[in-house]
Amino acid sequence: MRYRNIKELKDTLKGIVEFGTNIKTKVLDTHRLREEVIDNLVYNALFNEDSSIKNVSGWLIYEISNHLGIRPASIQHLYELMGKGEVSGFTVPAINIRGLTYDVARAVIRASLKQNIGAFIFEIARSEIGYTQQRPVEYVVAVLGAVIKENYLAPIFFQGDHFQVGLKNYQHDPALEINTIKALIQEAIEAGFYNIDIDTSTLVDLSKKDMDEQQRLNFEIAAELTAYIRTLEPEGITVSIGGEIGEIGGKNSTIEEFRSFMNGYRLELNKREKNIKGISKISVQTGTTHGGVPLPDGSIAKVKLDFKVLLDISKVARQEYGLAGTVQHGASTLPEDVFDKFPENGTAEIHLATGFQNIIYDSEFFPAQLRDKIYAYIQDKHTKERKTDQTYEQFIYKTRKKGFGPFKEAIWNIPKEAREKISEALETKFDLLFQKLNVQDTFEMVKKHAVTTDIRTGLLQFAKVL
Questions:
Q1: Nearest Cα to Cα of residue 360 among 107, 131, 44
Q2: Cα 430 vs. chain centroid, distance in angstroms?
Q3: Contact in structure between 265 and 243 (CB atoms under 8 Å)
Q4: Which of 6, 97, 182, 352 sits in a 20 to 30 Å window from 17, CA-based?
Q5: 10 Å Cβ neighbour count for 414?
C-alpha cells in the first residue's frame, strides 16, 4: 500500500502505534504491527515519491525499533573478548544484501531464530551502496523492518563493508577521495552503522622493496580514518573498526605484512592521540576473489584457499595485538563443505554476498521476463565493462549485480508467492552456513555483550508534517 498523504499513514496506525511530536513512540499492539503495518511502512520508507511520507515512515521504523529494544549495536566488546580468548570457536557471518533486502533480511532472521543465533552482521559495501541504490539509512530501515516483522527482539549489527579508498581516485586527488570516505563514514554512523571496515589496502605498493614502505599509505590512511571515526561515535558506543592488509583477489597475505601494517598503524595512531582505540580485526587475502571466478559457461572455478593464512595471522593478531582475528572475504561462492574450516582456523568474521545474489537471480521462481529485462539493461548500459575474452555468461555473471539498483522496486514487487519461494531457498542456505560457522546459541552472549544506544536519525523535522 502506497500512502497518499500523512493523514492516511496516521489513520492506519491508530490503535497500533502511538506517536507524535511531543510523546515517545509506543507500540500498542505488536501483533497488528507485524501483520498489518510494518510491510507498508517499509515499502513507503523506500519507495514513496512524497518525501514527507517517505521520511516519516523511515523515522517511525527507527522509533518502533527503539521502543521494542531492537537497536543498532557495536560488536566491539564481543571482539575484544575474542581477542582475549574468552570467547571462541565460531566465525561471525557478515551478510551483504544487494536486492530484495526486506525479504532476504527476514530469511536471515528466521534462520537465526531457529538456531538461537545473535552473532551475525548485516553489511553493505561502498560500491554496493552505489549500484544497488541503497543509502545507509535506507538499508537500516529495510533490515529493522524485517527484524520487527519476524519478532527478533535483540541488538542488530550493521556494518560498512569495504569503505574503500579508490586507488585511481586517490592518485588523482587524495584529499577529495579521503573526504568522500569520511562523508560516507559519517552518514553510515548517523544511520546506525556502529561497525566500519576501512579498506585502504588498495594503496599497498608491492613494487617497493621495503615492506614498511609497501604498507605505509595503507596504515597511515587507516589511522587517519580510525581517528576520524572516534570523533563521530554516539555516547557510550565504541565503533568496531576493521583494517585490511591484502586486497581481495591479489597475492596471499603474510604474517610479516600484518606486523608491518599493525606496527606502523599503532605509531600513526599515537601521533594523533595517546591510547586511541584501534582496529578490532584484520581482513586478509587467502586466495579468494569477490564473487568467484566465472568459467566460460558461467559456472564458478574451484578456489585453492589457504586456511593456514587465516590460522597463523589470527594467532598473531590475538596474542600480539589483542584483535579478534582475521576476516575472510569473497567466500559465499565457496563449496559448502569448507565453511566449517573457518572457525577451526580461528577466523573471526566471514563476508558473504554473491552467493545470495545468485540464489535470487537463478531461482526458477524469479520472473523470467524481469530477468531478461535486467540482463538486456546490463548489456546496454554496461557493455564497456565486458572484456574481450569474456563469454556472454561470464559478463552477465560478473555484472548483473548492477541490475539491483535500477530495478529495485520491480524486484520488490515480484509476486508474493515467488518472493516466498526465493526466501525459503535463502533461509535454507543461511541455516547451513550458520551451522557450519558454529554460531548456534550465541543469542544470549550477544545480548549480554553488544553495546547499543537509542538512535535518533535526523531523518526529518517531523514536527512539520505530523
A1: 107
A2: 15
A3: yes
A4: 97
A5: 17
Instruction: Tell me, letter by letter, the H, E, C secondary structure of 313-342.
Output: HHHHHHHHHCCCCEEECCCCCCCHHHCCHH
- Asked if the model's pLDDT at residue 462 lies above 50, the reply is no
Q: What is the DSSP letter of 233?
A: P
Per-domain residue ranges for the chain?
A: 6-68, 76-360+414-446
Q: Which fold has domain 76-360+414-446?
A: TIM Barrel (3.20.20)
Q: Residue 341 is which amino acid?
A: K
The residues facing 46 across adjacent strands are none
DSSP string, 138-204: HHHHHHHHHHHHTT--S-EEEEEEEEEPPHHHHHH-HHHHHHHHHHHHHHHHHHT--EEEEE-GGG-
pLDDT in tens, 374-431: 999 999 999 999 999 999 999 999 999 999 999 999 999 999 999 999 999 999 999 9
**What is residue 385's DSSP assignment?**
G
Average pLDDT value for the chain: 92
Residue 114: CB partners within 8 Å, gap ≥ 6?
431
Residues comprising the chain, all counted: 466
CA atoms within 13 A on the CB side of 296: 2
Across 200-298, the runs of DSSP E, i.e. the strands, are: 240-244, 281-284
The conformational region for residue 89 under phi > 0 = left, psi -120 to 50 = alpha, else beta, is left
Q: What is the mean pLDDT of residues 317-322?
A: 97
First to last CA, the chain: 19
Confidence bin at 229 (pLDDT 50/70/90): very high
Q: Supply 135's cell numbers.
A: 543509502
- Whole-number CA gyration radius for the chain: 22
The per-residue b/e assignment along 337-347, b for 16 or more CB within 10 angstroms, e otherwise, is: eebebbbebbb
**Burial (CB count <10 Å: 0-12, 13-18, 19+), residue 88:** middle
Considering only CA atoms, which of 319, 320, 327 is closest in space to residue 345? 327
Name the CA dihedral angle for 207, 211, 214, 216, rounded to a multiple of 10 degrees.
Answer: -160
**Contact call for residues 217 and 265 (beta carbons, < 8 A):** no
Give residue-wise pLDDT tens across range 130-180.
999 999 999 999 999 999 999 999 999 999 999 999 999 999 999 999 999
